[in-house]
Structure formats: C-alpha cells, structure tokens
Amino acid sequence: MSKHERDSLAMRKQFDKSPVLDGKAAIGAMTVDKGLEVQLVATEPMVFAPVSTVFDDRGRMWVVEMMGFMPDTSGTGEDKPDGKIVILEDTTGDGVMDKRTVFLDSLVLPRGVCLVENGVLVATPPQLWFIENNNDKPGKKILVDSTYAAGGNVEHQPNGLLRGLDNWIYNAKSDRRYRKVGDKWLKEATTFRGQWGITQDDKGRLYYNNNSENLLGDYFPAGMGGKNPHQQNAAGYDQKIVKDNHVYPAHPTPGVNRGYMKGILDDSLRLVEFTAACGPVIYRGNLLPADYAGNAFVAEPSANLIKRNILKDSGYTVTGKQAYQGKEFLASTDERFRPTGLYNGPDGALYITDMYRGILQHKTYITTYLKNEIKMRELTQPLSCGRIYRIVPAGQHPKKILVQEDQLLQLLNHPNGALRDKAQQYIIDHRLTALVPELRTALSGNGTPLMQVHALWTLEGLHQLTYADLAVILEQGSDDYKVQALAALPSVLDGKTAKAAVAKLDTLADKPFFAPYVAYLLPALGKADKAAASRLEGKLMKAYARDSYTSAALVNNAVNREAALLKQLEAFNPDTTLALNKQLHAVLKNMDNAANAKKMDALAVKYPRGYKIFNTVCQTCHGKNGNGIASMAPPLNESNWVNGDKSKFAAIVLYGLTGPVEVHGKLYKAPEINGDMPGIGGSDEFSDSDIAELLTFLRSAWNNNAGKVSTDDIKGVRKQFNGRQKAFTAAELTK
C-alpha cells in the first residue's frame, strides 16, 4: 500500500458515519447561493426515489420513482417490479405537495415520463408505451417502441422524453425522436446525445452530458442532423459547451467508485472532477435573479452538489464557463443527497429531484473499494426515502400559475419558458385551431421575439403553418428568427413550394452564417425537388468544403452517396486537408466497418453470453459498431489492445483502465473521452467463464481477428494481480 493510500485510509476513518436526515434537516446541510433558499416540496412518504419529473397544466408533478435501483451492492432484486409513476399535487397553494396519486405501478426500473394529448408516454425498459389517462387512471396502452431501451444497463439506457420546441420528443442516450400525429406515433433517427437527462434553451437547442463531462450540447436545431446513419461526431452536434469539469464538494467524498486512485480525490478526500454528471437544465424561469437566466445547471450526485455554468451565445456556437471557482451553486454535506434531475417550474423556481439513498453506482461497475465504503458507513439502507426541493429567492413562496384556455396567448409571451412551453403544448394537444389567426398575427411581427418563435412552432404543431408564413420571416426576420423558420421549413416543403424555397435558400447560401442551415435542409428539399437539391449541394460544396459545420451538413445529406460525393469533390479540389474530404473518408471507413453485420450476427449465436455482456456493458460507451463514441470511449474495432496480448486485454476488462491510452497511433485522453474505463472483475454478475467469452467475442468482432481467451486465462490474470483494486494505466501494461 502506497503512502497516499495509507494517508487516505487514515482520513477516511474520520468519516465513517453517514446519518439519514429528514427533509428539513437535509436542507440544513446545504449551502446555496447568497440571496436564495431551498424549500422542501415533497419528502417520504409523499415520494420515494424520484429520478425524473414533469409538470402538467395544473401545476402537478408527474414523478418517476425508481425504487428498484441497487437494493444492495450486488443489485439483488433489481428486476423487482416496484417502480411507479405518481402524481403529486399541492392542494393548499403553499408550495408543498400534499396529495399523492399512483398512476402506474409494478414497473421495473422506469426512467422517463412525458405528457402528450390525453395520455402519458412512459419509458420502462425495454419498451416505450403511450398510456391513455382516464381521470388519472391508466387506460388503453399503445406500444410506441419495443426496443426503446434494448441493451445497456440502467446507467446507459435511453431516458429524458423532452418535448422540444419543434414538437418532437427527444431523449438522452439515444439516437431516436418521437412524435404523435393523429393516432399514429412517428419515430425518426436523430443525433445521438448524452447519458442521463436532456434540456433545451429558448432557441430549442438541446443540452446534455455524460457522467464525466459538465455540459455538452448542439449548436444547430435539434431536428436537422442525424439523417445519415453512417456519420459519427458531426461538427456542431455533441459539442463540449463547458470544458471545465472540476467540482468543489462541501465535504469529503470518499464514497466514489474510484476513490482509491490518486487524482480522483484531493488531499482532503474531495472529488476533483465530475464522475456522475446528470440531469442538466437551462434555467428559463423569471423568479431567480436576472443573471441566472440562460445559465446551465448540472447535478453531481456523487459529490452531493449542483453546478452553475454561464453560457455565451455567439453566432451559432455556444460556449460556457463555470460560474465560480472553488465553490458551487449548491452543495450539501449530506452524502445521501443524490440530485438526479433539475427542472424549470411553472412558478419560476428551479426544482430538484433527490433520489436520497446511499448507493449510486450500478452493480456492473461497482468496485471492491466502493463496496467497502458502503459497508463501512451503512449506506445500503434505507431504500424508502426521496425528496423534491425548489430553489427560490430567500423569503419568497411563489404560487404556481395554471395553464388556462383564456390565457394561452398571454402565456406564449410569458417570461417563464416553462409556461411558454406548456401553453404551446396545450394549444397543440387540444387542437385549438380557433387561435390560428391570432397566432399568425403574432408570427408576422405583433409579438415579442420569444412569442414569435412559440407562435411559429405552435402553428407547425397544429399543421397550420404555411410557406407564406415562413417566407415573410426569411425575408424580413432577424437572423435568429430566420434560423427558426429554416428549422420549420421541412414541414411545409412540397412540390408546390419547392421552387420559391430553392430561390430563397440559394440566396441565403451566399452568407456563411446560413450555409450550414441550408445544407441541413438538403434531405427535405431533395424529397420535393431532387434536381434543385443537387444543384444547391454542388454550390455549397464548392464554396464551403473547408468549413467543418457546412461539411458535416453535406455529409448528413449524402446517405449511401458518400463515395460519389467524395469523387465529385476531388474532381474540382483534390486537397485532402479539406474538412469535407476528411469527413467523407471517416464516414466511408465507418461504412466498411458496418459491412460486418452478418459476421456479428453469427458471433452473437456462437458466443451468446459474450454478446450479451457486450450489448449490456461495452457498447454503451464503445458503440455497437465498436468504433467508439465521442466523449465516451475509444474504438474496440481494430484496437491494438483488443487484438494484442490477451493477458493485458483481460487485465483491462477485469480491473479497468485509466487514460490516456493510445489506439491506432491516436492518443485518447480526457476530456476527449471519459478519463477512466471501469473494470467488471469485481462484479458478482459475471463469472470468469463469462468474461473469457466476452473477450473472445470482442477479439473476433468487426475487423478483429485474434485468438480465443479461456477461463484459465482469466483465472491466471486474477492470480497474477491478486488483491488489486485500482485500474491499470497504459504505461503499466506496456512495461
């Protein structure tokens, strides 16, 4: 044991207790920004283990309770159907929920809820269901997606169900979006985003994160990208908005999964950087001080805190920085404070769901070190707690504002974005077409910029938007307003409107700012006028092949035409350093790798346990095609580590790997990817035989062609490193 480890152990003995606090006492353990206070909205037995929530038109909270998450360090009984969707209501107007109604029960690890028309969209792995609401009782069930959360584990499955400004429903840890049109549910491909939690700003751009990165997000409208399944890491999407990942806990936090490793905790045993970032929100309310507007807040349950970030919008790029150095917006000394999600409330307050429990790490990745920490401080029990808080100006007790039909147009102009969203959704869900004339009046210049945007998308949601509506905006609107009109253009493009649209897009394409947006419209334009889309593509390619954002948009349009487009590009400009050239080559390589589908199907049959573990554990970070996922992990396909020394590969899978690591001559390190890959050797879930089959599967998958790994090989590596807990570094393994 090193001196650092001995010193850390001595310090840990000072923090061997983690008492359970009631809701009010838990607030006493928090510090929050000056001038603000935390108020208790609900606590057990009103709510248990809340992980997600959404407000309805009456200001009630529909809460997802994930009771079954990690009942103990082995996850015993995790598949027990004890999850619920509950409705919490404040009947007295004091801001405290006093009525609980169970809408759905007997769910296994539910993860998301969304209110649409007369029903509720519920994510419960692996399905996504739409359930009609009959006076707060479940009615007819409609299966929306049978593979919504197929594969992965509870930490790495789709979640979110955010109704976006553009009327589509978006998710984190997913590349699909959904929309109800009449009696049908539409499902479309979109850009892959994040891990847990998703939010939007006033322009409808999406923000998210993964567990080790503060804030990621999109520069461009949510629905524009994601059309080319061969394209990965499209410039302008999945951008690092806030690159600083440091956190500043209010107390020692030794109970993190890799707390034994040097650099994870500082000398006072406080977490140094994010390890469980989740549940982000862009504050769009009007209750907190004005300088909080547009800020991004991010939960870090491992360190019992909430981060505040200040964002800067410049052109179509968004950058951000932490609001403070050395402290946090909110920090608790209570180890059981586990904020899972942050939300804008109809009263303008910032809401927090707190799972309030000791175990946060899923069994798949939990280390022996963390198991001991949990045992030492008796963190397994209780499992029957849960809290919801709101943050308000000190001394204030704001009242909820209801969404009422006679005030809908006024609410579309409300300074609280949560209310604008609800008014838009109410008009669409209730098909209030009688409001179309007034919406069109607001659209044409009779409203504030925010109201104009919501009027535009409300008309789109009612299927009442016309090309004539957008043409006025594209001619006279501000740049930001034109972007919204361009994002909505696909909904009105057809053979009749294509000619006029092409003329306008051709003009806009001459302006560098609009070039990426125009390029992202090519797939929709191609359906209406293929020849015009082809001409515009050629113009954009010749003018903007050096621009990474426009190039990404052109690749987005080139589904199964990538090789032809590259040949066309090289014919007039053979420069291999062009952004478009590089991006097309990357996509063509991805396509070559995807051609291994039949081989993978055969391997799944030959090594069923290995494939299942890959699908549950590995693909969530390394990708189903083995080519890695931006901000998550490097490739497994053709990896020198996978195909090399099987003992070293086994050591990585058993004990984990901490970066940086070189793959194919490229150095992968944080923050480009997660800094650490957790090992699974300490999990009770996988036997040595399982792990051997997993490694054999991976060494045979895609373009890999290495030898088998036996159970004895795994046992030998365990014997060689008997008692080891910490992850390897690449340098250790190469010695």
- List the quaternary state of the chains: single chain
Determine Rg (CA atoms, Å): 26 Å
Calculate the terminal CA-CA distance, rounded to whole Å.
Answer: 20 Å
Give the low-confidence spans. Answer: none
β-strand percent reads 15-25%
| Approximate shape | globular
Total number of helical segments?
Answer: 23
User: How many domains would you count in the coordinates?
Assistant: 4
**SS-based structural class?**
alpha+beta
The pLDDT mean sits at: 92
Query: In the CATH hierarchy, what is the architecture of the largest domain at level 2?
Result: 6 Propeller
Fraction of residues in helices? 25-40%
Q: What is the total tally of β strands?
A: 31
- CATH fold descriptor of the largest domain: Neuraminidase
Largest sheet: 6 strands, antiparallel
CATH class of the largest domain: Mainly Beta
| Name given to the CATH homologous superfamily of the largest domain | TolB, C-terminal domain
Keywords: Heme, Iron, Metal-binding
InterPro entries: 6-blade_b-propeller_TolB-like, Cyt_c-like_dom, Cyt_c-like_dom_sf, DUF7133, Quinoprot_gluc/sorb_DH_b-prop
Domain Cytochrome c: 605-702
Protein name: C-type cytochrome
Tell me what you see in this structure.
The protein is of the alpha+beta class. The protein has four domains: 3-393, Neuraminidase (6 Propeller); 414-492; 496-592; 607-734, Cytochrome Bc1 Complex, Chain D, domain 2 (Orthogonal Bundle), CATH 1.10.760.10. The protein is 31% helix and 23% strand. It has 23 helices and 31 strands. The strands form nine sheets. Strands 1, 19, 20, 21, 22 and 23 form a six-stranded antiparallel beta sheet that branches. It has a four-stranded antiparallel beta sheet with strand order 2-26-25-24. Strands 3-4-5-6 form a four-stranded antiparallel beta sheet, with no helix packed on it. Strand 7 and strand 8 form a beta hairpin. The longest helix has 16 residues, at 579-594. It starts with a helix and ends with a helix.
